[in-house]
Write a structure and sequence with these properties.
Structural class: alpha+beta
Helix content: 55-70%
Number of helices: 4
Order of helices and strands: HEEEEHHEH
Shape: elongated
Largest sheet: 5 strands, antiparallel
Strand content: 5-15%
Distance between the termini: 12 Å
Number of strands: 5
Amino acid sequence: MAYLLMFVILLHLITLAMLFIATMEKSWWVWDGLENSDLWYNCRFDNFTGTWLCSSTKETEWLQAVQVLMIVSVVFSSVSFLVFLGQLFTMSKGGLFYFTGLCQVFAGLTALSAALIYTLHHKEILQDSRELTSGHFGYCFILTWVCVPLLLCSGIIYLHLRKKKK
């Protein structure tokens, strides 16, 4: 039982870290390694100074939807983890972690929605950027897609997890 508990906590922390990185890092769309775009900024690498020059992205409805959904996903997963820790110490023996599981499932569904919106509407989101045919999805976008099944599996595990009776 202790191994299962450690596995669930580790899985939760890994998915939470991946969600946070996917939301905050600068690589949802990449052009030839010298320019990229994320949910907040468009950045270009300046070879002369060796630094990244960033400007705010143009706000579109689709981009705002992706931003909100990713933030809500991080919030759901964070709340889920805090509630789980609280339930470990306050829940009666034999109790189920329903609220924790539902929060994780909702985090997975909101991340899924954000990734789907970005997948289907990246042309509208990146409309003022460079030519899209020379670019590709970045690692933060892929990280979001990896998080979705992990969050959903974690939520299902929490829904079936029962506090051990002694």
